[in-house]
Design a protein that fits this description.
Layout lengths: L1 H19 L14 E5 L3 E15 L2 E12 L4 E16 L2 E21 L5 E25 L2 E14 L12 E12 L6 E12 L14 H7 L7 E13 L4 E19 L6 E21 L1
Parallel strand pairs: 1-12, 2-12
Antiparallel strand pairs: 2-3, 3-4, 4-5, 5-6, 6-7, 7-8, 8-9, 9-10, 10-11, 11-12
């Protein structure tokens, strides 16, 4: 059984490594030169989360949580995330999970508008967007003395509730999150420090088209959309768990996000590609999680 554990983790690591090697290869229409590169300012953010874990029967548990996220140097609420999930752990070294989250996100979008004098500028559009997220994950882990190594592979399906142009936004947007974590069990201590790295890989990032109204619908239906997938987030984190008692735990952590996204925008009335945008940014996140386990 121990050999099986090691083989499982090694196979998962090798599969993840091959996936990380993918490169962004956008199929940008050669006649379109309106490419914008937007570099966002670094931001300091916070995440506060409370959860309750309820064992249902042997190896099965249900977890319910609520999280609030702050951005703009803690000055503005960014998201509320309400989640419920089920975990199944058939062996100590292997765990499966499925969860659903309702996300209420503050949005700030930009739209290019033209004034009476013919000047073109970006106009900010603020609002709230509701989203539905489904996660399916598997986690393999192995111990080497006091060090625990775990690898989690998670597939996320993100559904939007607003009206979208299918050539601008894939709905659902599907991504793969691969996290490698190292935790150290300090003997005779309630603290367990850890570090981890995580990559987000898009699985159905849309390539742009010159004019979506001129796309052959039959061809789109038969052949499907064209994708140009890429790594859209790199996350590194360090933190520590603190075991208050057998029922209560706290988790303090710091994360750094490196984000990249590619988006196409079209003219609604004509369907012409008006903007092909790459956005990059970095965020520093301070988080506190509290969990009560029955």
């Amino acid at each position: 059984m121990r050999k099986f554990r090691y083989l499982f983790v090694l196979a998962a690591l090798l599969g993840t490594t091959s996936l990380y090697a993918q490169e962004w290869n956008p199929s940008l229409p050669p006649t379109h030169d309106n490419v914008r590169y937007v570099d966002k300012d670094d931001d300091v953010q916070a995440r506060l989360r409370a959860a309750i874990e309820i064992p249902v029967f042997k190896n099965f548990s249900v977890e319910v949580s609520e999280q609030v996220r702050l951005k703009d140097t803690f000055g503005q609420v960014d998201k509320f995330v309400t989640s419920v999930g089920v975990g199944y752990k058939p062996w100590k070294f292997l765990k499966f999970g499925v969860d659903y989250s309702f996300v209420n996100e503050r949005t700030i979008d930009t739209e290019q508008v033209e004034d009476d004098l013919g000047n073109v500028y970006d106009k900010e559009i603020k609002g709230w967007l509701n989203q539905h997220r489904f996660n399916v994950d598997v986690t393999g882990s192995v111990r080497f003395g006091q060090v625990k190594v775990s690898l989690r592979e998670r597939v996320r399906f993100n559904f939007r509730t607003d009206d979208v142009i299918k050539y601008e936004h894939a709905d659902p947007f599907i991504s793969l999150r691969s996290r490698l974590k190292f935790a150290y069990d300090i003997r005779n201590s309630r603290w367990e420090p850890y570090v981890y790295g995580e990559l987000y890989n898009t699985l159905n990032a849309l390539s742009p088209v010159q004019n979506y109204k001129n796309v052959d619908n039959a061809s789109w239906k038969d052949n499907g959309p064209k994708y140009s997938n890429y790594i859209n987030r790199i996350r590194v984190a360090a933190g520590t768990e603190f075991k208050i008692n057998n029922y209560n735990r706290l988790d303090f952590y710091y994360m750094c996000h490196f984000n990249t996204s590619y988006e196409a925008r079209y003219k609604n009335n004509k369907g012409d590609l008006k903007d092909w945008r790459r956005e990059k940014g970095m965020a520093h996140v301070i988080g506190i999680d509290y969990k009560f386990k029955l």
